[in-house]
Design a protein that fits this description.
alpha/beta, 4-stranded parallel β-sheet, globular, binds 3'-phosphate-adenosine-5'-phosphate sulfate
Length: 284
């Protein structure tokens, strides 16, 4: 199916899916009052958002699994850009996720109120994850085919626009915030060390038993079986679609041709040449 013009609307240069978001809410959220205890996990879609919803819920409940078994992740750690996210009425500490680009975030965050955790993932795996997600979730238009989706992704004709702009803009402005940068791949390779880093950043101390519990309930297989973590209830086009799909590093190798990969690498080198970030592209 081709993408119809009313499928997205643009707000300040960023693409939003019309059936999920609205301009009035996006306008209002720029003026949200921020408290020092507020935490915002910022991701480009498919970079580890629901994993971080799980990790943050567990960190703030000292590893108590009941915290992630009684209420859907969407209610525990909402996306602030979703109109019914109820930000202002929620009690402190407010844990949030967002896919917003830097220039649409609540302005008060730039006064160094609240905390930002930016989670990045290598963009080839982001693209592949997003491709299957669009194929399977009912709320999205299905991509025509992989080459077409690749083209759209590179040019930012996807929701939340261009991956390169998202990370470049956030990284360039990171010093304006209380800011922690982590990666999906670091979470995969050493979950314990990454969780400890997050705990230090948000000022939560967990002893070894509590840390073990956070790790156990954030593992892919455990999350996949937890209906409050895996978004089981979201309508699918087919039964094989899942938020927790493969959860691996390097699945892009099963989807990109050599030519597509080399083309992507050239664009990556060009667009990221002045950004001092290293990405992990495979699981070796
Ligand atoms: S969304 O729709 O933007 O909120 O998606 P997001 O949560 O950012 O990204 C989904 C991908 O994250 C993977 N995921 C995990 N990987 C490893 N371990 C755990 N616990 C985990 N939880 C989620 C999920 O499987 C998606 O990646 P792919 O590559 O599609 O499997």
């Amino acid at each position: 199916m081709s993408t119809t013009s009313s499928y997205y609307f643009q707000y300040k240069g960023c693409n939003f899916v019309s059936t999920i978001y609205n301009k009035e809410h996006l306008e209002q959220l720029e003026h949200f009052e921020i408290q020092d205890t507020d935490v915002f996990v910022v991701t480009y879609p498919k970079s580890g958002t629901i994993w971080m919803q799980q990790i943050m819920s567990l960190i703030y409940s000292d590893g108590d699994p009941a915290a992630v078994q009684g209420k859907p992740a969407l209610e525990r750690v909402p996306w602030i850009e979703v109109p019914n996210s109820n930000f202002s009425a929620r009690p402190s500490p407010r844990l949030n996720v967002t896919h917003l680009p830097y220039h649409l975030i609540p302005k008060a965050l730039k006064e160094k109120k609240g905390k930002i955790i930016y989670v990045a993932r290598n963009p080839k795996d982001v693209l592949v994850s997003s491709y299957y997600f669009h194929q399977h979730l009912a709320m999205y238009e299905s991509p025509k085919d992989f080459p077409d989706f690749l083209e759209k992704f590179i040019h930012g004709r996807v929701e939340f626009s261009c991956w390169f702009d998202h990370i470049r803009e956030w990284y360039a402005h990171k010093d304006e915030f209380n800011f922690l940068f982590i990666t999906y791949e670091a979470l995969k390779k050493d979950l314990r060390a990454s969780i400890q880093k997050i705990c230090n950043f948000v000022g939560r101390q967990l002893d070894d038993d509590k840390l073990d519990a956070v790790i156990e309930h954030s593992m892919f297989d455990v999350m996949k079986k937890n209906p409050m973590a895996n978004y089981e209830g979201i309508p699918k086009k087919s039964s094989d679609g899942a938020f927790l799909r493969k959860g691996s590093i390097g699945d892009w190798k099963n989807n990109f041709t050599v030519t597509q990969s080399e083309m992507f690498d050239r664009i990556f080198q060009e667009r990221m040449k002045d950004v001092p970030l290293e990405f992990i592209w495979d699981n070796e």
